[in-house]
């Protein structure tokens, strides 16, 4: 959960930093960077969800 | 290790798509010229702004105007200001527009031995009116183009407006392709479950659908980012955007459906049937409806596909491995979720 909150805070920070002029600069290469980061965050979030479910199951098995 | 070869392959292919997709430079292109209109018979001095060019280092720079296949004009007095900026003079002849036309656009061609040639269609609008009749020019059109150079280096095509974002083709589009493959495998497992009633088939279908939804949502997000800086808005209510959002809602309903049963047998059976229907609606939503309406997406409505010059050999070299890479990564993610579901099942059925 903390991880998810951190990710959303991070992406908000990134969006706040990226003014349109930055995204338009250097042939719009930062648009590609944003895309790659979005995919990366998505995969990490998916892994975090499985991790969380796994921890819950492990706790149940231990009890 | 032998059982994990496909995971390594997937990771390597994605690493390749990232490295090759980001490092291969864009081809040289012409951003704009100034002025962009002129009168027949006028002598003009145009400022040319290019992208990824090496004018400073090049020795044999040529600039041409192409009105049609038999009317060419060589630019003279080329003055290079920097690697991407130069000026050239054009001495426009007094005649040359096609029959009865008062205005016609010409293509600008810039060529040198380092970058090869670059085109800007519609660069200069040439008009004929009563002012142009007063200009008596002795210049004449040439009926053929000089020898142009071809860029032999590995480059991605240059496109106005898109610029470097053409690289998103390796990250945004493969997500959708991988999503389709994954939903397809998921549907196969749902059919298998209905035939065999084996829980592992249902678990596989469930896990694959989760990854498919992840890819679909990522596809929508990456598409919105790309659209914001090329089409001008995060969401332009383009038919393909809307239909993929609808498809995602159909699959999200699958997740809701799965969590709304007490009895596992019923949950598995009904969601398997739903999954088969969901995939069959995906095809018209993503491939039929967008083709019937005007769409901003290439390959839909009146738009040509990413094909021909858009998806050249260099791009295919990265695009196809990226599809396989994202598919394998998706199957890997689904595999983790599948093993969790199996473990949970064994734990619940332990006695």
Order of helices and strands of chain B: HEEEEEEEEEHHHHHH
- Intertermini distance of chain A: 23 Å
Strand content of chain B: 15-25%
Instruction: Encode the helix/strand succession of chain A as letters.
Output: HHH
Distance between the termini of chain B: 34 Å
The stretches of 5 or more residues of chain B where confidence is low (pLDDT under 50) are none
Can you count the beta strands of chain B? Answer: 9
| Uncertain ranges of chain A | none
Relative strand content of chain A: under 5%
Q: Estimate nothing, just give the exact number of structural domains of chain B.
A: 2
DSSP helical segment count of chain B: 7
- What is the 3D form of chain A? elongated
Helix content of chain B: 40-55%
Keywords for this structure?
heterodimer; A: 63 residues; mainly alpha; 3 helices; elongated; B: 351 residues; alpha+beta; Immunoglobulin-like; 5-stranded mixed sheet; 9 strands
Please, could you describe this protein's structure?
The complex is a heterodimer of chains A (63) and B (351). By secondary structure, chain A is mainly α. Chain A has one domain (2-62). Chain A has helices at 2-17, 20-24, 29-62. The longest helix of chain A is centred in the last third of the chain and has 34 residues, at 29-62. By secondary structure, chain B is α+β, with helices and mostly antiparallel strands. Chain B folds into two domains: 29-134, Immunoglobulins (Immunoglobulin-like, Sandwich), CATH 2.60.40.10; 163-348. In chain B, a hairpin with a 4-residue loop joins β6 (76-80) and β7 (85-91). In chain B, α1 (5-23) runs antiparallel to α7 (313-348) and α3 packs parallel to α7. Chain B is elongated. Chains A and B meet through α2 and α3 of A and α4 and α7 of B.
């Amino acid at each position: 959960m903390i991880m998810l909150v951190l990710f959303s805070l991070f992406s908000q920070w990134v969006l706040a930093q990226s003014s349109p002029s930055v995204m338009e600069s250097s042939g719009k290469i930062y648009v590609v960077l944003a895309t790659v980061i979005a995919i990366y965050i998505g995969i990490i979030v998916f892994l975090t969800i499985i991790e969380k479910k796994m921890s819950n199951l492990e706790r149940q098995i231990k009890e | 290790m032998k059982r994990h070869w496909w995971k390594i392959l997937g990771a390597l292919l994605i690493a390749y798509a990232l490295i090759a997709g980001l490092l291969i430079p864009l081809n040289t292109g012409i951003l704009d010229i100034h002025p962009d209109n002129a009168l027949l018979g006028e002598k003009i001095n145009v400022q040319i702004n290019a992208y990824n060019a090496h004018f400073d280092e090049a020795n044999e720079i040529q600039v041409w105007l192409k009105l049609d296949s038999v009317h060419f004009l060589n630019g003279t007095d080329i003055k290079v200001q920097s690697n991407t900026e130069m000026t050239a003079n054009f001495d426009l002849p007094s005649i040359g527009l096609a029959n009865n036309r008062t205005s016609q656009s010409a293509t600008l061609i810039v060529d040198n031995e380092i970058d090869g040639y670059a085109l800007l269609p519609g660069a200069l609008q040439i008009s004929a009116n009563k002012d142009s009749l007063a200009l008596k020019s002795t210049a004449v059109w040439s009926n053929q183009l000089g020898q142009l150079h071809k860029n032999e280096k590995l480059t991605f095509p240059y496109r106005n407006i898109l610029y470097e974002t053409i690289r998103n083709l390796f990250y945004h589009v493969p997500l959708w392709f991988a999503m389709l493959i994954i939903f397809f495998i998921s549907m196969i497992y749902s059919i298998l479950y209905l035939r065999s009633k084996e829980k592992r088939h249902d678990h596989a279908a469930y896990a694959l659908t989760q990854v498919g939804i992840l890819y679909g949502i990522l596809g929508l997000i990456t598409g919105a980012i790309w659209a914001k800086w090329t089409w001008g808005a995060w969401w332009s209510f383009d038919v393909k955007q809307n239909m993929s959002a609808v498809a995602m809602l159909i699959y999200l309903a699958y997740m809701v459906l799965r969590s709304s049963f007490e009895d596992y047998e019923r949950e598995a059976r009904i969601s398997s049937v739903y999954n088969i229907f969901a995939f069959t609606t995906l095809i018209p939503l993503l491939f039929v409806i967008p083709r019937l309406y005007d769409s901003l997406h290439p390959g839909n409505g009146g738009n040509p596909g990413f094909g021909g010059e858009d998806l050249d050999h260099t791009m295919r070299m990265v695009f196809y491995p990226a599809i396989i890479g994202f598919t394998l990564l998706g199957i890997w993610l689904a595999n983790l979720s599948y093993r969790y579901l199996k473990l949970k099942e064994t734990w619940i059925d332990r006695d």
